[in-house]
Amino acid sequence: MPPLKTRWDIFCTVVDNYGDIGVTWRLARQLVAEHGLAVRLWVDDLRAFERICPAIDVELEQQLQEGVEVRHWSAEWLSTEAADVVIAAFACQLPGAYMDAMAEREKPPLWMNLDYLSAEDWVIGCHGLPSVKYKTVQKFFFFPGFQPGTGGLLRESGLLERREQFQRDPDAQRKFLHDLGIEPTPGAQLISLFAYENAGLASWLDVLAADATPTHLLVPEGRILGDVARWLGVESLTTGALHVRQSLTVQVLPFVRQDQYDQLLWCCDFNAVRGEDSFVRAQWAGRPMLWHIYQQDEDIHLDKLDAFLALYTKALSPAAAEAMNGLWRAWSAGQPIGALWLAAREHWPELQKNAEQWCLEQALQADLAKALVQFYRNWL
């Protein structure tokens, strides 16, 4: 299929620090690298962006990063020509002047709302449907998802092959961990913890500390650090902090680039993640996981959680599925999970096999970037 000689604009309002920019940054890079598109990524918070892409200069209004033209989306909007394809990530509101520029084009652009990821059944029926219209410009819904009939998940070409090669290479893993200052205790299970504040954490840490199997808990900088510090009985935790309590070693990691975070997930035996971007990357790691879903008004996030669990645990035995459902639901409700963690551990080989099988099944679908490009071709 010949490459598209088109210009794409992706707009991102940073709402939750890293998830929004994490998704749009991955998408922008992939559209450039694998589809040869000219992409501008408009971001309203360059300091949040800098955490996952240290090369970003937060003082620049315009810069080129890995083939993507990064533009600072500030309150003082400067007039600019609209692109051929316009993506409003996560229902963000485009600048009024830019919407007028879209309508002024001789051929209106394809305007898509790249929505939040959900496994709910209604997503399939709404994916690709027309949304609102602004003058001559029609907007369309575009939903990422886990089932045929959705837009799929972000997955770069060759990602699973790179992951499998890395996981088969103990030396590569040791070097990666060493470069981050991590020297795991021999025989310790590695767990990564990236989560929102959670009152249920202490019960989990109590169980890990008392376990006969040592655990090395890797905690990237983030909102959960306050809860970890309280459990340790220290005032605060900063990057590089290392604390040992019984069988549990807790180590605080710096925020790392996206490719490094992928490798961190690949190294770990279990990954606790949050939001959307790290949630998807943990699935590509092929390891058992725990998702802290972003809390929404009226607990509508719990519907999303249950919808995903119904798919993710479908192939498990009834006992293993019950253990995973209990663990995930309690964690997202901020309830104690120590006993639930022990219940899940009883099914560990089955959970490991399920995580890998789920990853391979999701890889059978077209990835999100490819699905967006195909949607544009069909629209043409």
Provide structural commentary:
The protein has 2 domains: 7-154 and 366-379, Rossmann fold (3-Layer(aba) Sandwich), CATH 3.40.50; 159-362, Glycogen Phosphorylase B (Rossmann fold). 41% of the residues lie in helices and 19% in strands. It has helices spanning 19-35, 46-52, 96-104, 122-126, 159-167, 170-179, 201-210, 225-232, 258-267, 277-285, 301-312, 318-332, 338-345, 348-362, 368-379; strands spanning 7-12, 38-43, 62-65, 68-72, 85-89, 110-114, 130-134, 137-142, 189-193, 215-220, 242-245, 248-253, 270-274, 289-292. The strands form 2 sheets. The protein has an 8-stranded mixed beta sheet with strand order 3-4-2-1-5-6-8-7. Helix 12 runs antiparallel to helix 13. It is globular, with a radius of gyration of 21 Å. The relative contact order is 0.12.
